[in-house]
Amino acid sequence: VVSVAEGSPAWQAGIRAGDELLAVEGVAPRDVIDYRLLVDGEEPELLVRRAGATWSVALPKGAGEPVGLQVVSPVFDRVCTCDNHCAFCFIFQLPKGLRRSLYFRDDDYRLSFLYGNFTTLTRFTELDLERVLEQRLFPLYVSIHTTDPELRARMLRNPRGATSLRWLAALLEAGAEVHGQIVVCPGVNDGAALEATFADVLDRYPQLASLGCVPVGVSRFARPGELRPHTKQEAAAVVELVHEWQALCLRALGRRLVHASDEFYLLADVPFPPLEHYEGLPQHENGIGMARAFEASFEGHGGMVASARGGFFQAVDGAPAVGYRARRVSVPSADAGVPSRADRARGRGGRIGVLTGHYGARVLRPLLDRHGYLKRGVEVIAVENRFFGGNVAVAGLLVGADLAAAIATRPDVATWLLSDACLSEGRFLDGRELSTLGPRVQPVPAEGSALRATLDAALA
Ligand code: SF4
Questions:
Q1: pLDDT tens, 83-140?
Q2: How far apart (Å, rounded) are the C-alpha atoms in residues 176 and 170?
Q3: The overall pTM is greater than 0.85
Q4: 417 near 400, Cβ under 8 Å?
Q5: Mind listing the pLDDT tens digit for each residue in 48-79?
Q6: Mean pLDDT of 252-272
Q7: CB-based pocket (< 6 A), ligand 1
Q8: Average pLDDT over residues 328-339
């Protein structure tokens, strides 16, 4: 137990941070999912250990009421680790010396359910299928990559990759909601292979809730010769194919099903589709429809609420039981760093710099220009990602060292705004703390409405 809310049923029962929870209703929960289900009833009985002594206690609560305690991790037994060796795996392309949790490769359907992590299902079993269906642990997120068994085994570098999509069929047939993704690698699973995958999905997995195509990320630490980024023409071909299959799926299923990530549109220099084409943004956190959703939220019509599913960088640290997500900033930010009207009047206001990656800048600059912010002393600064290098240009992978270097070149900027998407518990991926960038850097929640409100407050 890492924390207990004062006055909660757990608090009243005498449970405190540091206690060990051994069983609930006589059962040792395997993970936070079991735990949640077990404590959901009326007056659940907990077996607790403190300093070697164990005792049972019934929690004074009604059915469905919260217990008021947080546990240390989402999985109490072992996380199912990944047994694939994909050449395109971004974890294999990380530099050495980062915090250990970033090198952790899971392939656990529970983390797919809890965090939106993608699983290849190569370690999925009959028992897992039974549990998913019995406890209704979905939506799940599955890495498909290709439906060609031989190619899939080759891409995952695992013979089980050839057969593990049988679990996808079983899940879908049983009515589970599953979203798929394809990491498109040029010359490997694009072109005819991608088209064959779309055709197979429509034929064999038409119940799939969505299928997102994302381009392979290639950092400067990738092994030479193994991977290369898409050219503009290759990205345009993917976008075109996705549009063709959207039209086909719309006719066959009444929905578009297949989507290309924002990165593909930016690489191809093709305008993003309208927001409604993203059909509820089921893969928003996978970078699919993020730009349109941000724009809508900035303009005050963010009616389509994006899903809050996260990627593995959020998942591996912290793992609080409530919300299942590490907070992006360790102390929720109010408006620290944004100069007050008095400060600005005294000349401290100065320029406002919005820090982002190269892709983010291509979305933000026209948006802020359209709404007159660029004329009012706001500037969008695209930060080069020297840390990862390669084709890494998304705001979520910006690191402290690169941001510090960009800030140092612009002493004329008085206030810096930075999307909190690149932070986990106030730290960047390179381990640097947000606070080391100085008091003038203000993290802003990665939503259009939050950026607009912060800009308006700073310019007021
Ligand atoms: S399945 Fe995912 S975590 Fe495992 S090697 Fe492939 S890309 Fe990496």
A1: 999 989 998 888 888 888 788 888 999 999 988 889 999 999 999 999 999 999 999 9
A2: 9
A3: yes
A4: no
A5: 999 999 999 999 999 989 999 888 888 898 88
A6: 97
A7: 82, 84-86, 89, 91, 105, 107, 120
A8: 52
52 CA → ligand 1 middle, Å: 40
Separation between Cα atoms, residue 452 and residue 460, nearest integer Å: 12
Torsional class of 263: left (φ above 0), alpha (ψ -120 to 50), beta (otherwise)? alpha
Given ligand 1 and candidates 79, 80, 82, 122, which is best to mutate, with the most ligand atoms within 8 Å of its CB? 82
SS3 content of the chain, % helix, strand, coil (to 5): 35, 15, 45
Give the mean pLDDT of 200-214: 97
Beta bridge partners of 211: 180, 258
Pocket test for ligand 1, best of 80, 89, 182 (most atoms within 8 A of CB): 89
Omega within 30 of 0 (cis) for the link into 139: yes
- For residue 24, list its beta bridge partners: 27, 46
Q: Are strands 178-184 and 210-215 parallel, antiparallel or unpaired?
A: parallel
Q: Over 90: is that where the pLDDT of 322 sits?
A: no
Can you tell me which atom of ligand 1 is nearest the CA of 312? 3
User: What is the number of other CB atoms lying within 10 angstroms of the CB of residue 142?
Assistant: 26
- pLDDT value of residue 254: 98
Burial class (CB in 10 A: 0-12, 13-18, 19+), 442: buried
Cα of 89 from ligand 1 centre, angstroms = 5
- State the Cα–Cα distance between residues 177 and 283, nearest whole angstrom: 13
* Beta strands in 218-289, from DSSP E residues, in sequence order: 258-260
